[in-house]
Amino acid sequence: MDFRLQKAAVSALADTAADALIVIVAGDKLDPALDARIASIVTEAVDAGDFAFKAGRTLYLHRPAGVKAARLVVAAAGGESAKAFRKALAAALGVLKDLGARHVALAATWSLGDAHAEAAVTAASEARYIYRHTKPSAPKEGALAKLTVLCADADAKAVRKGLERGEAVAAGVTLARELANRPGNHCTPSYLAEQARALGKKHGLKIEVLDRKDVEKIGMGSFLAVAQGSHEPLKFIVAQYRGAAKDVAPVVLVGKGITFDSGGISIKPSAEMDEMKFDMGGAASVIGTLRAIGELKPRLNLVCLIPACENLPSGTATKPGDVVTSLSGQTIEILNTDAEGRLILCDALTYAERFKPAMVVDVATLTGACVVALGHHHSGLFTADDAMATQFQQAAQEALDPCWRMPLDEEYDEALKSNFADMGNVGPRGGGAITAAMFLRRYTGKYRWAHLDIAGTAWKGGAAKGATGRPVGLLTHFVLAQAA
Ligand code: BES
Ligand code: MN
Ligand code: ZN
After folding, report:
1. Is the N end or the C end of the chain the one with fewer CB atoms within 10 Å?
2. How wide is the angle at C-alpha 189 spanned by C-alphas 436 and 185, nearest 5°?
3. Domain boundary among 151, 186, 218
């Protein structure tokens, strides 16, 4: 999809050449500067009861008199924020969804900033995405091929910047959705490694892929314990982006890459088990973020680590009660083989030490408990580092990809005590997202660290079942903030 910027006065929007013109309005009356032809259409519609200045309301006209564009959509936003703008735009694009407009021009009745422009790109890209990889009969993508953002002269610089960032984030989100949507028999650990290699080629990244023998030699006993139930070969993917001098400490992202989570011997109930193909959502979002960073080329170094394997029951699978030695040397009593995410992440977190990182962020569809706590809107953020927490809140606002800080107090660590190893891999039911984070914390003493539990945000269930591509936006903004 093509994104453009065009300078235009609000007073002359009706002269815009496009297949469709979207005008976003905010507040409870029209901006007096708005093009008189469009203003009279809106006023008439309000008088007739066909439109109201209420968030979510839209007005559609075909070949409106005095308007050059063949279609006009007016959408009401609940304010001038990027978030309100994005919502109104999504509603307007919904109106155009099955229509023939290829070139859509977009304007608001107020001054646009970079966040609005970025939101326009990500919303349009999100609306256009259709999963086809294993469904050739899926409908073709809609007609929309070009979006032109109309803005005042004074806003052009910021809008251009926002468009550029939005395109990179949207490409990352689309890649993450595409990877996560692919079923477990297509998106295997080997497939993820291939995808990382392809991305590396495109953006000049250094890609290494470790396999079982390498991982055995290094001593990742915990990761191996999860992988050993499956015939599908495990992969440990290391991808490096170099945008700063060699001696600049990198940001390290670690993504959980369980390409299918059956629970193992502690097997899950059958209902909705298919959704456990999304259990590599952390890995997908890390790869998506790498793509966005590869396009934006900020001055920083980034390392992405992805432990990838399946979690299956079999005669060679780990049994409840088995004790393994992690790469850190700490031993783990695997009380529940379904708490496998932390078992592959802990070895990756120890491996991260060798990069002498400025900070490490892990991303994982880690616990059902996080879904219970936060639902599907906020990702769970766990960190003892207040500065990182602040940067994440900032990034979340910029990207419109929210997260919520959860506790990480020492008291929760108690639950991990074991009589047979340095720790067990599960605690009691209550506070399950926190004990999972506390488990990871035991491996992160040597650097600044944050953990994102995206179990509730990486995909949607039900009729709209599919990957969301979150938290690529959040991660990209967070990483960009680390640039010199
Ligand atoms: N991948 C799941 C977490 C999950 C479950 C995400 C449902 C989204 C929806 C993870 O590996 C898991 O199974 N966690 C267990 C941990 C428990 C055994 C302590 C869980 O949440 O039930
Ligand atoms: Mn599990
Ligand atoms: Zn899992």
Report:
1. C
2. 105
3. 151
Would you say how long the chain is, in residues? 484
CA of 148 to the centre of ligand 3 (A): 41
Mean pLDDT of 396-411: 98
What is the pLDDT at residue 142?
87
- Angle at which helices 156-181 and 281-296 pack, to 10 degrees? 150
- DSSP secondary-structure letter at 216? H
Using the structure block, give the residue that is written with the tokens 């900020």: 298
Q: What is the pLDDT of residues 420-462, one digit of tens each?
A: 999 999 999 999 999 999 999 999 999 999 999 999 999 999 9
**Is 342 a residue of the active site?**
yes
Angle, helix 189-203 to helix 281-296, in steps of 10 degrees: 10
DSSP, collapsed to helix, strand or coil, labels residue 62 as strand
How much is the pLDDT for 83?
A: 98
Q: List, chain by chain if needed, residues with CB within 6 Å of any ligand 1 atom.
A: 261, 279, 336, 338-341, 365-369, 371, 426, 432, 455
Best residue among 279, 344, 367 to mutate for probing ligand 1's pocket (most ligand atoms within 8 Å of CB) is: 367
Look at residue 95 and tell me if it is in a domain.
yes
The overall average pLDDT reported for the chain is 98
Same domain, 243 and 320: yes
CATH number at residue 105: 3.40.220.10
The position carrying tokens 């170099």 is 242
* Per-state percent for the chain, helix, strand, coil, to nearest 5: 40, 20, 40
Cite the DSSP H helix spans in 32-143. Answer: 36-47, 82-96, 114-128
268, 446, 448, 465: which one is catalytic? Answer: 268
pLDDT tens-digit series, residues 336-377: 999 999 999 999 999 999 999 999 999 999 999 999 999 999
How much of the chain, in percent, has pLDDT values that exceed 90? Answer: 99
Beta bridge partners of 241: 302
Asked whether residue 40 is assigned to any structural domain, the reply reads yes
Structural domain for 398, as ranges: 173-483
Instruction: Answer yes or no: is pLDDT of 43 > 90.
Output: yes
The two three-digit tokens of residue 6, written as one number: 């065009």
* 256 catalytically annotated: no
Rg from Cα positions in the chain: 24
- The encoded tokens of residue 325 equal 């030695």
The residue type found at 122 is T
Q: Give the CA distances from residue 140 to residues 144, 179, 219, 469, in Å, rounded to whole numbers and listed in that order.
A: 11, 19, 48, 20
Residue-level pLDDT at 50: 98
**Ligand that comes closest to the CA of residue 263:** 2
Amino acid identity of residue 179, one-letter, is L
The pair of structure tokens assigned to 395 is 């990034």
* 314 and 409 inside one domain: yes
Which ligand 1 atom minimizes the distance to the CA of 263?
13
Q: Ligand 1 mean position to 102 CA, how many Å?
A: 43
